[in-house]
Amino acid sequence: MGMVHDLALADQGQRKIDFASRRMPVLRTLTEQFAETKPFTGHRIAACLHVTTETANMVRALVAGGAEVALCGSNPLSTKDDVAASIQRDLGAEVFAVYGADRDTFYEHVQAVLKTRPTIVVDDGADLTTTIHNDHAELLTDVIGGTEVTSTGVLRIKNMADDGALRYPVFPTNDAATKHLFDNRYGTGQNTIDGILRATNMLLAGSTFVVVGYGWCGRGVAMRARGMGANVIVVEVDPVRALEAVLDGLTVMPMSRAAEHGDIFVTVTGNRDVITIEHMRKMKDGAVVANSGHFDIEIGVEDLRKEAEEVTELRPNCVEYRLPAGNRVLLLAEGRLVGQSAAEAHPAEVMDMTFATQALALEYLVANAESLPAGVHGIPKDIENRVAKAKLDAYGIEIEQLSDQQKRYLTDWRVGT
């Protein structure tokens, strides 16, 4: 049996899961197909994902495809207890996830999932992958491969591959256009703003909003903040991304300067220590600090707690820290993923593409496992096109088609202007 907060919450969770399913037509169609073809029969899938309604529908697809699924949460504050209860009761998977789990409990859940001796690993942040390689080498003989869904996790598996440490093939779902162009930009953009508003109820219009990191997630956050009337400052280390932000009409400066100007700060870098206690000492009184990167190490949370002379919980997911200089810093969601922790995570419509891409990558992995070497493998282009086309079909949108002459022109170097 799994470990969830309260199975009595399952009815509530089931209603939410079914509502999300209505807005996930691509994954719903795949679930029906998997129920007929059973591509995952005989496989044990260990998944470490945000336990949300969208993830529940991914689990439903995998179970329909014949898999045995064990699921743990990839972030203690993103688990929805009612959803976890329904997955455990209704969807035929074992769930080890409780909202607010401490660090020890979190890793107990990771270990519990790995006790199922998985043949496939579905990761969000690479915690399962790194734990297997570091602590459970005996499991490597059973694992045929896996997927990784988030930017930080992809960075970790690529580092493993570069070091020659990665022992099985992994498909980086995050690198697929049907993931990062939509999930990262529109999903993260929307739920980050949603989390900040739920935690603070602040007016964004007229505020100075600092986005630390201008990757796809940062672009999405900046786009949504600007759309609500905020003046956006971008902090970036990559010159090309910084130049892009400038040409997008945004202000770019180092964090040491931005710290003095911002009213709201959001980190989306996938790195550590991008807002430090030195930065927070410079901030305006009442500055809001939040993180939308995968791990809570982007902000110097421990140093903030140590230095604060007074700590006050103002609202759920909004804690005020008064520093010795007198300025107060409002930290949201303990520095964890603010859109997952203080809001409802990504909308079902965008996760429809992410999880459909991931499910098809898993089907491809099973079909081609014997020929795939260890390492990081890109999502096949035909999978991305299949998902995008299915999504367009669901919207009732028809696109143009190339004529035979146009196809010949695009593949023939002899024809000029």
Q: What's the arrangement of secondary structure elements?
A:
Elements: H1 10-22, H2 25-37, E1 44-49, H3 53-64, E2 68-73, H4 81-90, E3 93-96, H5 103-114, E4 120-123, H6 127-135, E5 145-148, H7 151-162, E6 169-172, H8 177-200, E7 208-212, H9 216-227, E8 231-235, H10 239-247, E9 251-252, H11 255-261, E10 264-267, H12 277-282, E11 287-291, H13 301-307, E12 310-315, E13 318-322, E14 328-332, H14 338-341, H15 348-368, E15 375-376, H16 381-395, H17 404-411
Parallel strand pairs: 1-2, 1-4, 2-3, 4-5, 5-6, 6-15, 7-8, 7-10, 8-9, 10-11, 11-14
Antiparallel strand pairs: 12-13, 13-14
Helix pairs in contact: 1-3, 1-4, 2-3, 2-15, 3-15, 8-9, 8-15, 15-16
Provide structural commentary:
Its cofactor is NAD(+). Pfam families: AdoHcyase, AdoHcyase_NAD. NAD(+) binds at residues 150-152, 184, 213-220, 236, 271, 292-294, 346. Substrate binds at residues 52, 124, 179, 183. Belongs to the adenosylhomocysteinase family. By secondary structure, the chain is an alpha/beta fold. The protein has 2 domains: 7-179 and 346-395, Adenosylhomocysteinase-like (Rossmann fold); 185-341, NAD(P)-binding Rossmann-like Domain (Rossmann fold), CATH 3.40.50.720. It has 17 helices and 15 strands. The strands form 2 sheets. It has an 8-stranded mixed sheet with strand order 9-8-7-10-11-14-13-12, sandwiched between helices. Strands 3-2-1-4-5-6-15 form a 7-stranded parallel sheet, sandwiched between helices. β4, α6 and β5 form a beta-alpha-beta unit. α1 (10-22) packs across α3 (53-64), α2 (25-37) runs parallel beside α3 and α2 runs parallel beside α15 (348-368). The chain is globular, with a radius of gyration of 22 Å. The chain starts with 9 loop residues before the first helix and ends in a 6-residue tail after the last helix. The model has no long low-confidence stretch (mean pLDDT 96).
